[in-house]
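Hypothesis: this fold can be encoded by more than one sequence.
Test: take the structure tokens below, design a sequence, compare later.
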């Protein structure tokens, strides 16, 4: 069974979230990111959980180990199924994050962002002054995350196969940057279709605007899910 596509609830208010979720009659896996969480706080988690949906809380923590460890204790106490940090925060930070999160939420999944899907290889080399290729950098961060006790990473589906080759099939690849063929890329760079993500071996896809901005979001979700599960566009 394929994992359900994760819908990114990139809204500012709970009113918008309620309107959006009201269009669905099934239990979803949704992502609460900075836009929603920073403006509404932990109450959004309780409300969305009460509606029966699973939650990926995406705050991409990136700070010194002590600060992230303490913050993760707070996030671990929330009833979320998945959360994340930035692998660029380093091994000590990721280890502290994992210990702290799992202490409070043993079944929760902790993953690390490798290179954002809005980053191209050229940007990475010019802005981060990286001497690696994008693939090498993603593999490197995935290996650090694995050695730090995390369950997987966030990357583009373009790197899912390589990550599994280097970190094993059980190491999760959670992949945003998903677009249907006719969609615009918006601010994303490394984009793939749901069928493409399936072919490349992603474990989860994260889909925002392709669904949230569609005229019929529930129908669009079914289309994304069907394409993701069948591997056919
Ligand atoms: O951690 C994430 O979820 C994330 C990492 C990344 O590299 N790229 C990325 O797009 N995301 C998130 O995935 C979602 C993608 O949204 P759409 O581009 O609208 O599908 C957004 O909520 C982003 O914050």
């Amino acid at each position: 069974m394929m994992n359900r596509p994760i819908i990114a609830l990139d809204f500012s208010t709970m009113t918008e979230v309620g309107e959006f979720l009201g269009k669905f009659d099934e239990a979803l896996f949704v992502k609460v990111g900075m836009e929603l969480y920073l403006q509404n706080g932990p109450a959004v988690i309780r409300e969305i959980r009460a509606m029966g949906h699973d939650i990926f809380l995406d705050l991409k923590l990136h700070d010194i180990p002590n600060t992230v460890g303490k913050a993760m204790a707070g996030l671990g106490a929330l009833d979320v199924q998945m959360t994340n940090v930035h692998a660029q925060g380093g091994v000590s930070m990721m280890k502290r994050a994992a210990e702290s999160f799992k202490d409070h939420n043993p079944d929760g999944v902790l993953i690390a962002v490798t290179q954002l899907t809005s980053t191209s290889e050229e940007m990475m080399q010019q802005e981060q002054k990286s001497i690696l290729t994008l693939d090498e950098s993603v593999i490197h961060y995935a290996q650090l995350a694995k050695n730090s006790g995390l369950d997987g990473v966030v990357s583009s589906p373009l790197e899912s196969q390589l990550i599994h080759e280097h970190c094993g099939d059980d190491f999760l690849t959670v992949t945003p940057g998903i677009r249907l063929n006719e969609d615009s890329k918006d601010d994303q760079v490394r984009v793939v279709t749901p069928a493409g993500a399936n072919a490349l071996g992603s474990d989860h896809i994260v889909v925002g605007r392709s669904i949230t901005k569609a005229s019929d979001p529930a129908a669009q979700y079914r289309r994304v899910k069907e394409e993701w599960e069948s591997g056919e566009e």
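Residues 91-104 form the longest helix (14 residues). The chain is about 45% helix and 15% strand.
Hypothesis status: open.
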